[in-house]
Design goal:
heterodimer, A: 426 residues, alpha/beta, Peroxisomal Thiolase, Chain A, domain 1, ten-stranded mixed β-sheet, B: 81 residues, mainly alpha, Non-ribosomal Peptide Synthetase Peptidyl Carrier Protein, Chain A, globular
């Protein structure tokens, strides 16, 4: 029998927020977390603004032993902080390092897009090029292996179920949550630590700048640079961070009296095969629509049941297409589109971490009864104007029962999740 | 440099890698780096690199493999400086 899957813990390190409560405040206040980045300017980027988390390298003794700190990098720190915070938020105890207890029923799928390019470029490359292989040291492999983030968390939390890292560009952490959901749904695990991370280094962002897909016209006014849905949007603002959720089967969660944020009621993962307009860098619109309809069908709901969509919405040419795809897939008139906002307008595009950080944002809004303002959308794109009523441009109170999260990634891949607020009597 | 001075520097270099810090208080030449101090064996690579930097010496892989106790490390370093 398929299990019902619920979310019982949230953890986040985002631009402008190192905890869920700080993230909630940031979204409520609608302050842009985008700032000028001197290292991007120095390196000659066209775009010199980013959503760059700060302060997360402080107080690390709360997360790691001093010996562990000798062998962790930015990506591992971001992920571990978000994972441990989510674990504690779920009311679970961080295991003693000396205890041999293993959580055989609990696993982790934690993804990344570009891995630890900073470690590769500062520890591996110079030593290899100089012929100093011994100087690479013992901890390079565990820091540059793509599974570094899931492996580290697996050790910190003594996880004995599947522990792996996934990658599907900007769909990555939504995919991680969906794969974790399916694992629990099919009874292969009782609990999963799911999400993703992207490290804060300019190597991760340089390739996008070279492609000229980053927002480069607002270097002097960073707070205006991330403009999803806007006619004057000219690219996305890169970011970094980590978002992690704890998923459990309903029975396990209820047995231990866990707080339940929401139930995942439907998901879809697919690809567009680089056909019908899709390519390595653009989505096949039919595949996007199929992902939406598949998730809605799996959830057993009607279009009209969706109260809110947390869009992928990056601030590129793709935003109008995303909105139109929702409308087409849900078979609704523009005036009937559920309320939509773009969390990237506040924190930028955190790449692999976007899906899970924005899921934390979605669940925070659902549980606290508000929708954050989609910033810098005062001049809506002309193709989005028919949907104007649905675009949340001022923070508002909102009773959200059912919400959808979409993520789309390079490689023509899509992920859609549908969440339902958990009612106590269920 | 006296043996004691070398030993103090060796212990200082090892300190961040030590997982059994209780045993740090009673370090002697016979203290085993992996079993007594619970240094992760793979980290010995980094410890040897730190010896090389601190004492301006070169340690071959064969010599590194023979270092098991604090005394082994002190003797190896003393012979090279």
């Amino acid at each position: 029998m398929l299990k019902r899957v619920v979310i019982t813990g949230l953890g986040v390190v985002a631009p402008g927020a190192n905890s869920v409560s700080e993230f909630s405040r940031l979204l409520r206040e609608g302050c842009s977390a985008i700032t000028h980045q001197p290292d991007m300017a120095e390196a000659g980027f066209n775009s010199q603004v980013a959503g760059s988390p700060t302060g997360y390298m402080e107080n690390l003794e709360q997360y790691f032993t001093s010996e562990e700190l000798l062998a962790v990098n930015d990506l591992m720190v971001l992920t571990s902080r978000a994972a441990i915070d989510a674990w504690k938020d779920a009311g679970l105890e961080v295991p003693d390092r000396k205890s041999d207890h293993v959580h055989w029923d609990t696993g982790a799928i934690l993804g990344t897009h570009l891995g630890a390019l900073d470690t590769v470029n500062t520890k591996l490359l110079p030593n290899v090029q100089a012929g100093k292989i011994r100087r690479i040291g013992s901890s390079a492999v565990e820091q540059i292996m793509l599974s570094s983030l899931s492996a580290k968390v697996g050790g910190l939390l003594a996880l004995g179920n599947q522990v792996s890292t996934n990658s599907s560009a900007c769909t990555t952490s939504s995919e991680a949550i969906i794969m974790s959901y399916l694992r629990i749904r099919h009874g292969l695990a009782s609990r999963m630590v799911a999400g993703g991370a992207e490290g804060r280094n300019i190597f991760n962002w340089a390739g996008f700048d070279a492609m000229r897909v980053l927002s480069s016209k607002f270097n002097e006014t960073p707070e205006k640079a991330s403009r999803p849905l806007s006619a004057s949007a000219g690219g996305f603002v890169p970011g970094a961070g980590a978002g992690v959720v704890i998923l459990e089967d309903l029975e396990t969660a209820q047995k231990r009296g866990a707080k339940i944020y929401a139930e995942i009621i439907g998901t879809a993962l697919n690809g567009g095969g680089h056909r019908m307009g899709g390519s390595m860098t653009a989505p096949n619109p039919i595949s996007v629509q199929r992902a939406i309809t598949d998730a809605v069908k799996a959830a057993g709901i009607k279009a009209a049941d969706i109260d809110y969509i947390n869009g992928h919405l990056t601030g590129t040419f793709a935003d109008p297409y995303e909105i139109a795809n929702w409308s087409t897939a849900l078979q609704i008139e523009p005036s009937e589109l559920p309320l939509v906002n773009a969390t990237k307008s506040v924190i930028g595009h955190t790449l692999a971490a976007a899906g899970s950080i924005e899921t934390v944002g979605l669940l925070t809004q659902m549980n606290e009864g508000f929708l954050h303002a989609s910033l810098n959308a005062e001049d809506l794109h002309e193709k989005i104007l028919p949907y104007e009523k649905s675009i949340v441009r001022q923070k508002r109170d909102a009773s959200i029962r059912i919400a959808a999260k979409s993520s789309f990634g390079f490689g023509d891949v899509n992920g859609v999740m549908i969440f339902r607020k958990f009612e106590k009597q269920e | 440099m006296t043996e004691n001075e070398i030993k103090d520097k060796v212990v200082e270099i090892l300190k961040p890698y030590v997982r059994n810090t209780d045993n740090l208080g009673s370090v002697s030449n016979s203290t085993h780096i992996i079993t007594d101090l619970e240094v992760n064996s793979s980290r010995l690579v980094d410890v040897i690199l730190a010896f090389e930097d601190e004492f301006d010496i070169e340690v071959s892989d064969e010599e590194a493999d023979k270092v098991q106790t604090i005394g082994d490390a002190v003797a190896m370093i003393k012979a090279k400086i």
